[in-house]
Amino acid sequence: MTADGPLSGGNTEHEPGGAAAPAPAEAPREIVFRARGLRKVYRTGQVEIEALRGVDLEVSSGEFVVLLGASGSGKSTLLNILGGLDVPTSGELNWRDHDLARADERELTRFRREHVGFVFQFYNLIASLTARENVALVTDLAQAPMRPEVALELVGLGARMDHFPAQLSGGEQQRVAIARAIAKRPDVLLCDEPTGALDYPTGKVVLDVIARINLELGTTAIVITHNAAIAGMADRVLRLADGRLVSDERNASRLNASELSW
Ligand code: ADP
Ligand code: MG
Question: What does the UniProt keyword field contain (predicted)?
Fold first, then answer.
């Protein structure tokens, strides 16, 4: 594969030259995550907290899913389990034909490394490295990564590659973190409150980047937020309350970040 432009590095096929590519024609979608009766109990001393109380869920490849819910409803727990950072206490969880519920630490590490990009509220960039070097740390470990420059172009930071985190705004730092997450070409991008530390206009820029990655590279994206206004950008909106999935709705069409109002 040649990498002759920022959008050529994807794992889906595109017409050349379509910078603002429309949604790909409805490709047959495959279920990638399948969870059944997912429970997670945290034990701290004598106290047991049931963070997930039986979640059934399917996520298809290429979907953009927004996960809403009040603080403490189990969103991060669910995302961490989907991403192989943690395992459920009981229940079934598969990523394609991988059993994530019974995977050992080695298998989970491999799953994360090969398939998952994470974006968190705080960007976790290394202060002494430039944007390019922060991304290169990850691409050095990946099997068929994008060049760091390509990933940074994709998030709109082509002109900021040699800046250090302290020279970038919060929104720009988060876009470096997104570039780092996508540079290894993950199948799935899991974002836990990616706009939680940003003001709303800046947050929308970051969400727009995530939505474009999802459309242009075909990366499945699951984004946690407690801002319900953002739900309009998604293909699908899940709501968690008290460890249970209480709604699962599909949007008739997706809004651009610029169309959201609050
Ligand atoms: P959310 O992301 O929706 O705010 P979390 O998944 O972080 O919710 O937490 C769900 C519940 O599980 C909360 O009651 C939280 O306090 C508890 N919890 C989360 N992580 C841990 C942990 N590592 N140890 C103990 N309790 C936890
Ligand atoms: Mg959380």
Answer: Antibiotic resistance, ATP-binding, Cell inner membrane, Cell membrane, Membrane, Nucleotide-binding, Transmembrane, Transmembrane helix, Transport
